[in-house]
Specification:
With 63 residues, the protein is mostly beta strands. Strand 2 and strand 3 form a beta hairpin. The chain has a domain of 35 residues.
Length: 63
């Protein structure tokens, strides 16, 4: 997926992967990703993807 900073990031969503994220898509095709995305390199952003929207965490340097 694309990070809000524009970088490409990979989110592993298959069983057995570590770390691993769960993805759900609502009736309108909008994704929700769990847990949050916390980049420890690059832009160092920390956010949730909920119903296709970015929700910034308070500790994110880009919030």
């Amino acid at each position: 997926m694309m990070c809000p900073c524009g970088a490409t990031i990979e989110m592993l969503v298959f069983d057995g992967a570590k770390p691993r994220w769960d993805i759900a898509v609502d009736a309108n095709g909008r994704p929700t990703l769990r847990p949050s995305v916390w980049r420890n390199t690059g832009c160092r952003s920390h956010f949730w993807l909920r119903s296709g929207r970015i929700v910034w965490c308070g500790d994110s340097e880009t919030a």
